[in-house]
Amino acid sequence: MQKTLRRTVLAAGGTLLAGAVARKYLVEPGQAEQADPGHPPVQPLDIIKPHPPTILPRLTFLDADGKAQSLEQYAGHGLVLNLWATWCVPCVAEMPALDALSRTLAPSGIRVLTVSLDRSGAAAVRPFYAAHGINSLPVLLDPHSVLLGALGLDGIPTTLLVGKTGLEVARLQGPVDWASPQAAALVTKLIG
């Protein structure tokens, strides 16, 4: 019972945070016009603050077929690990850019992993990918939002940069235009 209540509170908090992030990044204060949700919101890349490499807890999630996956399966690859959901406006806005980033970084061995927190799992993510032309990202799932607690996160979208040694080297909360050449260069530099 307490676990269910905690998850409900976390989900509600994530929804509120997503709304606050959307208001902050999709519409500038004082602007009369509405933001175009078809374009990824842009945050300055300098908000990605590198920190001393940190050991991550054991992180597990599911693939589209419901099989358990873990970050250890990607050993030796640099990772861009993004937590998102189809109901999160800023998350939805940055998904095409993450898809483009995945294509850009693939030759360098850096993988972009987007883990959906949608409770309905692949039933929500597959049609979303199809409707938005997302074809370079795997369907990865955390329908019980376990990763939020394991990583001590307040909300989504959140992106972790994980070096080839498996250590977290940077963390970013909020949406970014990951498709820019500057983003790919910074990710490559930080991950090594």
TrEMBL record:
Domain Thioredoxin stretches: 50-192
SUPFAM superfamilies, sorted: Thioredoxin-like
A GO molecular-function descriptor: antioxidant activity
Keywords noted in UniProt: Redox-active center
Bilayer-spanning residue ranges: none
Pfam families per record: AhpC-TSA (PF00578)
Protein name per its UniProtKB record: TlpA family protein disulfide reductase
Organism: Lichenicola cladoniae
